[in-house]
Write a structure and sequence with these properties.
The chain contains ten helices and ten strands. The chain is of the alpha/beta class. It folds into two domains: about 150 residues, 2-Layer Sandwich (Nucleotidyltransferase, domain 5), CATH 3.30.420; about 170 residues, Nucleotidyltransferase, domain 5 (2-Layer Sandwich). Helix 4 packs parallel to helix 6 and helix 5 crosses helix 8. Bound molecules: 5'-O-[(R)-(carboxyoxy)(hydroxy)phosphoryl]adenosine and zinc ion (ZN).
Length: about 325
């Protein structure tokens, strides 16, 4: 079975092709237009998707060595995300599926992240899933594929958002996660004691806005020269606080498991080395099974949409021609 996945929910135009569960192409075009604004501007994002989606499809099919005629279905991310951006991918996918007379599958963005999290791993449900990206910091229990029980989520900023806002406050470029990770190299993660919020037993909701405020207060109490000379320490300590907060929540979720600790962690923030290292340590210390996808499958990509699309295709879960994009769509309603 050959499936093409199209992802345009935010600032990546991406197309992946999956053949019987194997990724044979995954082209990601990350938009540059947002860098000067320090965050994603929705209108610029949708315009850029229009410019790049067809060349991205062309590159993916070339790399896979196939033609559109070989495809069994088209999977498209239908939400949640930026409405204008989602519509570009959805209309493109719909047009190809209609023209080729093959089924269209509407994929939930987070279900895509989850399926990407299982590449190269043999973990099967039940497991706990941490999804941490620019818009989500959620922990789900996954009793079986396609069923998602929400255990906890952020009450304010997402972990990726905390990286992005923190970077902006320190004058580092967008996206903030990679900037902070780069700048933190050689810094002391214990130089500044930033807060780890909501650490009461059994509490699985999270909060990152206090951490951001604490960083702002710390920066305001320093001179620009001090900030510059201590940037590596600031970044290392801030990154450490986010990673600690996430891992504490994962540990708390896994404690409640009746299946002995099985963890899948996905989303852009999981490409962070400190986050990966801490999750790995937590799981290995406790003898838990875990899966961390390769970095190319952490941030948004088309292959994850094709992988989840294949699962939905096999269930016969096809979209109607009047499917539309949705900006808000809780995973637990699937
Ligand atoms: O999953 P993703 O590509 O898109 C969303 O669905 O939001 O995640 C993007 C988020 C951004 O907030 C970005 O700063 C963060 O993931 N991110 C990172 C790293 N790479 C991307 N955060 C920390 N360290 C990284 N290396
Ligand atoms: Zn994402």
């Amino acid at each position: 079975m050959l499936i093409m996945g199209i992802e345009t929910s935010c600032d990546d135009s991406s197309v992946g092709i999956v053949s019987d569960g194997d990724v044979i192409a995954n082209i990601v075009f990350t938009q540059k237009v947002h860098a000067e604004w320090g965050g994603v501007i929705p209108e610029l994002a949708s315009r850029d998707h229009i410019r790049t989606i067809i060349p991205t499809i062309d590159q993916a099919i070339k790399l896979a060595g196939i033609t559109l005629k070989d495809l069994d279905s088209i999977a498209v991310c239908a939400g949640p995300g930026l409405l204008g951006s989602l519509l570009v991918g959805l209309c493109t996918g719909k047009a190809i599926a209609r023209a080729r007379n093959i089924p269209l599958v509407g994929v939930h963005h987070l279900e895509g992240h989850l399926f990407a999290g299982l590449t190269g791993s043999n973990i099967a449900p039940p497991f706990d899933a941490l999804i941490v990206s620019g818009g989500h910091s959620h922990i789900y229990r996954v009793p079986e594929f396609g069923k998602y029980e929400l255990l906890g989520k952020t009450r304010d900023d997402a972990a990726g958002e905390a990286f992005d806002k923190g970077a902006k406050a320190m004058g580092l470029p967008y996206p903030g996660g990679p900037s902070i990770e780069r700048t933190a190299k050689g810094g002391n993660p214990r130089a500044f004691n930033f807060p780890r919020a909501m650490q009461t037993a059994g509490e699985l909701d999270m909060s990152f806005s206090g951490l951001k405020t604490s960083l702002l207060n710390t920066l305001n109490a320093m001179t620009p020269a001090e900030v510059e000379s201590r940037l590596a320490d600031l970044c290392a300590s801030y990154q450490e606080a986010i990673a600690d907060a996430l891992v504490w929540k994962l540990a708390e979720a896994a404690k409640r498991d009746d299946f002995g600790g099985k963890i899948v962690a996905v989303g852009g923030v999981v490409s962070n080395s400190t986050v990966r290292e801490k999750i790995k340590n937590l799981c290995e210390t406790n003898g838990w099974q875990y899966s961390l996808p390769g970095r190319e499958y952490c941030t948004d990509n088309g292959a994850m949409i094709a992988l989840a699309g294949e699962f939905r295709h096999k269930k016969g879960d096809f979209a109607s021609w009047n499917i539309t994009a949705v900006s808000r769509w809780p995973l637990e309603t699937l």
